[in-house]
Write a structure and sequence with these properties.
Layout lengths: L1 H21 L8 E7 L1 E2 L1 E7 L8 E8 L8 E6 L7 E6 L5 E3 L7 E9 L3 E14 L1 E4 L1
Antiparallel strand pairs: 1-3, 2-10, 3-6, 4-5, 4-8, 7-9, 8-9, 9-10
């Protein structure tokens, strides 16, 4: 009788880890910056790679360097992005700017995408040449 109890106990110990690893929680909404394009302003492609649609999405764009480029920190709420879908957000600089990197301090941009507020999903930082309203990503 004692031997059967020990065997049963050992069998239960081997089954419990298998059960706990096969049960997975939903990942929820998760956003990813797929690509960033320049041109007349900056176009950011944001994809929802999670399983749910986020209730709120925030887009932050920070900028530094160059002459006359005054964007600093710009936050915008975006429409929700369904799972598997990609949305494009277009940001115009709004002012004439110059930043070549060899005549002036190089321009840098930092894009942050948040689900809800303060729940960072993805961050991308890049350098760019700016001439007027045109942005050339390096």
């Amino acid at each position: 009788m004692k031997k059967k109890s020990v065997v049963l106990f050992v069998c239960l110990l081997t089954v419990i880890p298998v059960l706990s690893t096969t049960i997975a929680a939903d990942s929820g909404p998760e956003l990813e910056i797929v690509k960033i394009r320049g041109g007349l302003g900056i176009r950011t492609y944001i994809k929802n790679i999670g399983n749910e649609t986020p209730s709120k999405v925030y887009f932050w764009l920070e900028h530094g360097g160059g002459i006359f480029v005054r964007l600093h920190k710009h936050g915008t709420p975006l429409d929700s992005i369904p799972p598997g879908e990609t949305d494009v957000y277009w940001t115009k600089l709004g002012r004439f700017g110059i930043s070549f990197g060899f005549l002036t301090e190089p321009s840098w941009f930092k894009i942050t995408v948040e689900i809800e507020q303060d729940q960072v999903s993805d961050v991308e930082t890049f350098n760019a040449l700016v001439f007027g309203p045109f942005v050339f990503i390096q």
